[in-house]
Amino acid sequence: xxxxxxxxxxxxxxxxxxxxxxxxxxxxxxxxxLQALIEGSEExxxxxxxxxxxxxxxxxxFDQIFTDATHPLTINFxxxxxxxxxxxxxxxxxxxxxAIVDEAAGRLVAKVTTAVALTPEQETQLIQxxxxxxxxxxxLESTVDAEIQGGFIxxxxxxxxxxxxxxxxxxxxxxxxxxx
Length: 180
Description:
By secondary structure, this protein is α+β, with helices and mostly antiparallel strands. It has helices at residues 2-20, 24-40, 42-49, 55-66, 72-83, 90-104, 120-134, 165-178, and strands spanning 107-114, 137-144, 152-156, 159-162. The protein folds into two domains: 2-102, N-terminal domain of the delta subunit of the F1F0-ATP synthase (Peroxidase, domain 1, Orthogonal Bundle), CATH 1.10.520.20; 106-178, Glutaredoxin, CATH 3.40.30. It has eight helices and four strands. Strands 2-1-3-4 form a four-stranded mixed β-sheet, sandwiched between helices. The longest helix is centred in the N-terminal third of the chain and has 19 residues, at 2-20.
């Protein structure tokens, strides 16, 4: 909860600055790259979360790592986070930033959990069904959780569609226990 409270003003400031500088497309690409980097690089994740490294060292490291392929606004943002010792909230800030971008575009985020990864065709079909249901553009965030055993769970705004095998089995067990 604290992460989101810290993340919101920084994410909003980055979004507003990106609009002001007409750099939103570049900043969105940078945020996507940073998310992939955090998820894919243990070293980078340790860099942003380490309380031992000095803010100055982190700021200089961000400057060295990202100078070539990153928008200057993103680099300045990362350096500011380092100097304010807020870089450990970067993941939360990126999530909030993405939510702000989606909201501004009138897009909903559907969080989909499946037992196995969806194929591109299945993703396309699911997006089409959810867009028809909601009347808005939908972006999928997919996760795989083998514990649901099959089927899927979709959270779209405040609505949850639970068509998982695990839930169906649980309902069946409950019905059998009740004798109905």
